[in-house]
Amino acid sequence: MVCAIFAGTAFAEALPQAPAAQEDRQGRQTASPSQSPQPSPSALPSTQKAKINAAALVEGDGFTWDAASKTLTITEDTGDYPLSYVGRPYQDYRYTAENLVVEDGVEIGSYAFHSFTGLKKVTMKAAGNIGEYAFNSCSNIEEMSIESCGDIGKSAFSGCSSLPSISIGQCGNIGDNAFDRCSALKRIEIEKCGDIGKSIVVRTDVETIAIGECGDIASSAFKDSGNVYNPPLKTLEIGKCGKIGSSACYGLPLETLKIGSCTSIAGQAFAQTHELEILELGNCESIASLAFMSSGAPIKSFTLDHCTIDETAFYMVKVEDLTVKNIEAIGENAFQSATINSLTLSNIALLGNSSFAGCKGLTKLTIENVPKIDESSFEVYDSNFNNVETIVLRDVEYIGNYAFYNFSKLKHVTIDGSCGYVGAHA
Description:
With 426 residues, this protein is mainly beta. It is 5% helix and 32% strand. The model is unreliable at 1-54 (pLDDT under 50).
């Protein structure tokens, strides 16, 4: 037995031994110099890196992927893709990526992230153009921050049905149906943008849109052209814009409309906005026919200053207190059949025929520095709807025949300044 043990020990000692771990001066073990070094993860292909460490950063063709934070970062222009998603190098992260970061200057092509249903947050600081349908059907995005970007293509964010609000610093043109089918969307804020396309918020719950400055606004911009999928838009505020197209907000339940300045307002742009109570309109070169037809809940108080008002522009409007001043021309029938309680006209160069004919509810009328009042300007269709007791006229040069005929409750007329002609039965 002793010999067997000795023989075994001798045999073990005869075997080649692996170099022992060495100790440094502080007693820590260090690898022997003869040990072969293991390859570093950086020296491996990306697929092997991911296997070695699931949280490692994967670098792909124009993107990086961080599994730990579930963040997909786009580092190069994506290019355009067909609806079938063929060729997207980051396609494998369609369901796993929750955060998307677009680096500065990067352009997002058409269908680039179509149906990336894992996405919850999108961040862009200074992106390039965003192509058509780029984020279409990204149904779980809950937060989107765009400090600046180029043009936003047609239906770019259509179907982002979990997105409650959108904030954009600056962008280029906004394409048709850009936010269509964003069913949870309630608020849009844009500091500055280019032209705005058609039907950008149909099939949404948008109640408030605030735009600092924009270019032209297309026809039916904020509504469905077929009036089927209109948003419940209540507040629209625009600091400065170009042309506002026809039917831009036709029939919407607007309660507040504020426009600092605009080039022109086309026909029926705000017609049939029956819930409108607050209307503020700054510099506007022209207001076209039927632009505000049948609007007002009524409008509480409204001032028109420095613009041209086309015929029937405010046909059948409802407003409690209306002031119109510094106007080149008020077109024929501009306020025909309107409901107005108090009316002040000041510094009007041309007052068109029947411009206020058939007005109802009028109780107070003040006219100053209006050269001529024709016989039909204030024609009364039914004296039962006219309650004016006092008229004040200042610097009115010509008062036509029957100018205030059928003002059956009129008791006092004050004429100040020069008046060259007062017609028969005026």
